């Protein structure tokens, strides 16, 4: 069995907080399957694992379109009473500098939807959870705001709601005293739509089923050199990057 390099990190973290709690050749006539989420009346299945592939060389303004679409879809950063202290970060734009050349580029960082999700492991109530189709999210009804998941996330992909919120989106419940993060626009996926960031920058971001060997995203992963951020942790992320 392949060793998960995150195990040691996880055990140390749990002790700290006191919880016990490539390349492939494509056949000429192969038809790529487009991402198609389940109908509303169909049960979620583990046969599917949703994911994203982000080509940093094709991003609009280094991820600005992605961030703007997420803000519009989920309503964070747009509240009339919001301020800088709120610092919601469903997705954030990060600038990277290459040591060798000094060149810089930007990319969006969001919840990486890990197969072995540290936020889920440390949550004492089960509010941080992973659906069997790979989507990691927070159940606001049972989140107690302990923020253990924020400490455990190696991607700084979660934020805490400090303030009362106004003009919320009906498909994205948010609440003071709870943690929030990218949920891959699960409300859109369950209606057969793409996540908002994908529709905002379709040339740069591919959405699809990582378990389907002939899905567009799977073929792209086989054809190109791609990267998992902090692959050394062995989390098997659902978000991959090309061009890093």
Structure, explained:
- The chain has helices at residues 6-17, 64-74, 118-122, 148-152, 186-189, 196-200, 216-223; strands at residues 50-55, 91-97, 104-110, 128-130, 136-138, 159-160, 179-180, 205-209, 226-227, 239-242.
- It starts with 5 loop residues before the first helix and ends with a strand.
- With 244 residues, it is an alpha+beta fold.
- 20% of the residues lie in helices and 17% in strands.
- The protein has a single domain (6-242), classed as Alpha-Beta Plaits.
- It is built from seven helices and ten strands.
How do the helices and strands line up, and which of them pair or pack?
Elements: H1 6-17, E1 50-55, H2 64-74, E2 91-97, E3 104-110, H3 118-122, E4 128-130, E5 136-138, H4 148-152, E6 159-160, E7 179-180, H5 186-189, H6 196-200, E8 205-209, H7 216-223, E9 226-227, E10 239-242
Parallel strand pairs: 1-10
Antiparallel strand pairs: 1-8, 2-3, 4-5, 6-7, 9-10
Q: What's the overall geometry? A: globular
Order of helices and strands: HEHEEHEEHEEHHEHEE
CATH A-level architecture: 2-Layer Sandwich
Total number of strands: 10
Q: How helical, in percent, are the residues? A: 10-25%
Number of H/I helices: 7
What is the CATH domain class?
Answer: Alpha Beta
Order of strands, widest sheet: 8-1-10-9
Let me know the average pLDDT. 84
**End-to-end separation:** 29 Å
Largest sheet: 4 strands, mixed
Supply database-style keywords.
10 strands; Alpha-Beta Plaits; two-stranded antiparallel sheet; 244 residues; 4-stranded mixed sheet; alpha+beta
